[in-house]
Amino acid sequence: MNGFLNIDKPEGITSAEVVRVIKRVLHPKKIGYIGTLDPIATGVLPIGMGKATKLFPFLEKGDKAYEATLTLGSSTDTQDRTGKVIDSADPSGISEDAVREGLAAFEGEIEQLPPMFSAKKINGERLYKLAREGKVVERKAIKATIKDMTFISKEGPDVRFSVVVSTGAYVRTLCHDLGEKLGVHAHLKDLIRTRAGNFSIENSVKLAVLEEGGDEALEERLISLADGLDTLSKVVVVAHTSDRLQNGHSVGVSEIVSYEDVPGAVNIRIVNKRGKLIAIGTAEGLPIAGFPFTSIQPKKVLL
């Protein structure tokens, strides 16, 4: 079985547990997920099965969108509501305008210190495993890009906002750092991932629905390899191109039936006339014969 599932992860389980549920139902030879969601988080968790797992490098760097609720007045060792309170202050003097200004200050390229309770590896060990042992290790700040930060509401100490972040950014840390900037501390209360790359919450399926429906329900929701990468440009090629790709040869414009451009896309999907994805490649050379390239060099062949 080859393809993607757009799962709406429920609260209270890990991303790995979602994978175990699907393995129990479908028994795929290979399976994995893109972008870890913490147990308290819900929302979009893209799952890849079979050959789809080979395509993760083309999807992992996509932006992710969230709706978050933070609580002003206390910070925790996990930077979310599951942790132990380590600092507190009275947040009653923080106005909505102050929150708006604080959020705006984090837009753009920033630096974040990865939290100890995270899946990031240092010297081959997951930080959260070290944190559970009571260890704190030195971490280097990482660059992250924060886009489209939008204030939604403030009710008492709770602030709701939406945000789009680059890969590797931590919304928990964003909440923590905002609390420090406002001088009253803060932690993440709730988090919903509404989009991961081209996978959106509107097109997701709840894990419980798949469990109840069994393998038939899972197969009905399966997204093809080509559609799972629809943020990439696409070329449709003639039949004999498959043999050339298997031998590592590039695709010339004379072998292309049609071309669909996706602005900003670096890689190109190479599909046959039936819509089956056969390779991912990159454009090379100068524009020729109405195409913005001379040929496409394969990077990943899926035949």
Give a structural overview:
β18 (267-271) and β19 (277-284) form a beta hairpin. The protein is 21% helix and 37% strand. The protein has 303 residues and is α+β, with helices and mostly antiparallel strands. The strands form 4 sheets. Strands 1, 2, 3, 4, 7, 10, 11, 12, 13 and 14 form a 10-stranded mixed sheet that branches. A 6-stranded mixed sheet has the order 16-20-19-18-15-17. The mean pLDDT is 93. It folds into 3 domains: 3-62 and 198-226, Pseudouridine synthase, CATH 3.30.2350; 64-196, Pseudouridine synthase (2-Layer Sandwich); 232-301, Roll (Archaeosine Trna-guanine Transglycosylase, Chain: A, domain 4), CATH 2.30.130.10. The protein has helices spanning 15-26, 96-105, 127-132, 171-182, 207-220, 225-228, 241-246; strands at residues 3-9, 31-33, 41-49, 64-72, 74-76, 85-88, 108-112, 121-122, 125-126, 142-155, 158-165, 186-196, 199-200, 205-206, 233-237, 251-252, 256-260, 267-271, 277-284, 295-301. α1 (15-26) packs across α5 (207-220). It contains 7 helices and 20 strands.
Quick take:
By secondary structure, the chain is an alpha+beta fold. Helix content is 21%, strand content 37%.
List keywords for this structure.
single chain, alpha+beta, Pseudouridine synthase, Archaeosine Trna-guanine Transglycosylase, Chain: A, domain 4, ten-stranded mixed beta sheet, six-stranded mixed beta sheet
